[in-house]
Amino acid sequence: MADVGSVDVELAVMAALRAFLGDEVVVRDELDNNLANELPTVQVQVSGGDDDGLRLDRPFVDIDVYHSTRAEAIALAADIRGWVLTRLRGSVTSQAVFGRTGTISRPAVRPYENTALRRVGATYEIYCHPVS
Asked: Which residue has the higher pLDDT, 116 or 26?
């Protein structure tokens, strides 16, 4: 049996999100200095959560969308929210089984120091465990 926390949730969610969004959207865990030239970009980061001490993880995952306009960032964040709540839930990858998913903080405009970009982010809870 795999240890609790053995699923790299960031990598698993990024891979699944890339498959959903396609090649036109950059999906990453860390931003780089070329962000303004790589729009739209989606950033995935674990921001906390808990586990059952045995096998089940319940991480909180921040998903931030960076886009050139507020409307485009909001629309992409809404698409991602729908994906998290319907398509990620119950899915299986080679490393992870995703169970219940939920919204902790729905997509909202978040501040960003570069005024040429718009940032919309949300926080989700994603129950998952390693594939047996």
From this structure: 26
